[in-house]
# Entry
Amino acid sequence: MKPDFDILMFGRKSILKAEEFLVCVSASDEAHGVFEAFHRLLAFLVSYLAGLIGVHFQVLGVSPLETHFTLVLLFIMATVVYSIAYVEIKLQPQDADLPIFRSICLVFGIIAIELLVAIIISPFWLFMVNFCPILLFGVLSHSYRHISECLYNTVHKIYELGCKTYDWLLQKFQYAASQAFSLREQEDNGIQREEIV
# Structure
């Protein structure tokens, strides 16, 4: 049996794309270059797997929506979340939330790929259910310093606001108390003057 030339070329292109991604990851020091390479690889894998799903289910004569409706909806949601985060990165490239958006893109891009593979290989969902928490834990532990700094800054700002509010209330109560004492003193002095007269 002679292999189809188009399939061989498509497989070769996928290997070259993967090599391009790995070269970009290892050669580039900037996170932006790595992220763009990840985006290109993700777009390629999604289009490749979507085409493979189309061919697979066309041969079976069944619609993927009939057999894997939930997975298709989850894939659409993961793709929409990824797209929104990617647009945010493109519109605000120097934003302070850039690492968070990149993490969102990483997580939801990988989930989208996993969902497409789960549509092709049905028992794959068991692996995915076990792998997703590990992936999320890995991303959170990688971003631990940034997350802890954000939490510390938030708690510190709330603490400062509480201290300022306490000082303001203390000043108001002290002022009200001094006004009450001075009013009481004036009343006492007024009563004593009337008694003298």
